[in-house]
């Protein structure tokens, strides 16, 4: 269990495209997330209470009770954000050996989240970062398929696993991991590794609404388990995965 913490290697919003291309990841402070997404930090902070009361994740194959979540999907084209009918979350075994290959139906995100002034801005910013990474300059806007996951990992079982599948890729173009809250825990260290090389980076996200962006083609990532420092400890995150060409789904 990791007890030491290393500060995130934060960059400015202007450095994000270069960082993603050269290193495969970029980290932003909360203040810079608000600037990057062109929204008010107060509007982001107003979303934090929507992590209370998340339904349990009943699909954990390790028998744990430590994960709660909601899941919704969107298509973003330029500045236009459209929710899609509720659908299952599906990943191939290639990317998730533990929970891949099955449809997982989670409760959808709620109106207080989706109607927030900041919500569409976050999705648009993630789509724009994906376009900057993957699309040639000047190409017409193409749709981006975003899956949104609200997670709470708690210490009900004495230990909580943010990534029970281990170090992994998600089979998308870009992954955005927003830290929402850490309460009464140790651990939860972020680790990012080159997918085709020996180098890696470790740090701990602690600031609410700080952000880790990942080029899913060039890096793999994981978060270490958490343990309680006080009763009721938990770690909340928002994960947005952005993919071109369509959502992941059962072949055929």
From TrEMBL:
Q: Which keywords belong to this entry?
A: Dioxygenase, Oxidoreductase
Q: Which domain of life is it from?
A: Bacteria
Q: Could you tell me which InterPro entries the record lists for this protein?
A: 2OG-Fe_dioxygenase
MF GO annotations? dioxygenase activity
Name this protein carries in UniProt: 2OG-Fe dioxygenase family protein
Record the organism: Curvibacter microcysteis
Organism lineage: Bacteria, Pseudomonadati, Pseudomonadota, Betaproteobacteria, Burkholderiales
